[in-house]
Write a structure and sequence with these properties.
single chain; 450 residues; 5-stranded mixed beta sheet; 6-stranded mixed beta sheet; globular; alpha/beta; 3 domains; DNA polymerase, domain 1; Nucleotidyltransferase, domain 5
Amino acid sequence: MLINNYDIRLFYKCPMLLQLNKYGPEHERDFHPILGRNKHRSRKSDPSKEEIIANTAKTLRKMENGDSPINQSWLHTEDYMTKIDRLYKVESSSVFGSYSYITAFMRNVKHIRKTLIMEGVFNTIILSSIQQNQPDYFQILRKEDTLTINVSEYQEELMSDLEKIEQVLNKEITLTPNYTRNCRVCEWRKYCKQLAEDRLDLTLISGIGKIIKKQLEQQNIVDVPSLAQASLSSIDLESVKPEVKEYYILQAQSLMDKKERVRDNITFPKRKYELFVDVEGSSHHNFVWIIGCLVRVDNEYYYKHFIAESQKKEKEMFSAFMKYVESLNNDYTLYHWSLAEPQYFMNLAKKFKLDTSNVSKLVDNSFDLFPIFKNKIIIPVYTYTLKEVANWLGFEWFDPLVDGATSIILFDKWYMHNDRKSLEKAISYNSDDCKALLITKDYLTKRLTS
C-alpha cells in the first residue's frame, strides 16, 4: 500500500483519524454540521495504480521539458505518492540537467500547522528521490508573502513516523484514542469518546493530552481509576505545577464517584444588575452579528439581544449595546464564559474607533465564570464547555442538537438566503446560552459562597 500525502496530513492531525478514516466502522461516523459540508471529502478513496502512473508520467514530461511552474503535480516512488500544488524550477543540477525543482503549497493561512509542514517535507522526500537532488526547503505561498520551510528540521521526525504510519495502514498496530477538546468537531468524536470511556482513558481528564498521558503511564498510572488512587507526591511531572497535578487527581476522583470537589470559596460582586452575555460572530463574513444579554434585576430576568443583520450594521448594533450598558450607571456585573466576550468588545471599539474608556469599564465589570471550574470547583465532566457544565447541572437547550458551530450555519442561512427561521433558531440558541450562564452562576453561588 502506497503512503500518500493525505495519509501524512491525517496522521499529524490525529493518528487515530488516519486509522478510522481507513478502517473505522462507517455507521459510527457522525458528521458535525460544519464538517457535513465537506462530507464527500472525509474518506478519500485511494487513486488507482493506473491513475498514479499516468499522472506521474505527465508531471515527469513537464519536468524533463524544464517547465515552471508545474501545477497540480503527481509524483510517486515505490513506497510513496503525492499530489503537489506547484513545482518551481531552480538552478541546481539534477537528473534533468542544470536545473531541479522545489515544491510549494498555495495556502493563504495565517498560522502554519504541523500537518502542512510535514506534508511539505514528505513531498520533498519524494521529489528528491525522483530528481536525485534534495532541496533544502519548500515554500508556502500566501496572499501577502512567501514562507520558506527548512526541510532538515523535520525530516528525521518524519522518517521515524513513516514506519508507524505504514503499520497503521497495514493493520499491524491498532491505535487507541486520546480524547481532547479538539475532538468536539470531528466526525468520529462520539465513537472515540465511547472508546475512551470504555477504557477509562487518562485523556478523559481535561488538560491531559498524549504527552502527559505517556509520562503517567510510565509511572504505572494507566487509567482514570489508577490516577484517582494516586497521591500528589507520587506523581512526577516536572513541567506541571502542583495545583494542576492536584486537579488531575481530584478530577479523576470526581469522574469515578460522580461527585463534585470544592477547592476554594469565592465572592461574587454585589450589584443591582446581572448581565449574562453571549456574543456570536461570523468568521465567514468577518463581523459580530449578535450580542445576547439575559438581564437579572430584583430576582426577575429578561432576555435582550442586539443584532447586526449585515456587516454594515455591526457598528450600530454595538453602539446600541453600549448605550444600554451605560444606562445601568455602572451598577452591573457582566458574566460570560471564557475570554472571548471581553476581547470582542475591545476589538469592536478599536474597529470603529469608539471611546475605549466606556468599553474598559465594561471589561472591568466583567466576570469570567469559566476559570472558576478546575480552580475553585471540580465536577464530573470531560470538557469544561458551557454546554457540558450546564448539562451536568440539569439545564437543557431548547434544541439539544444545536451548538456554537451550528449557530454559525444557521446565521449563514439567514445571511445568504434570507431564511428567517434559521435566524430565529440561532437567536433562540443564543438565549439558551445566556440562561445557561445564569444557571451556572447560581450553582457556583450556592456551592462556593459561605
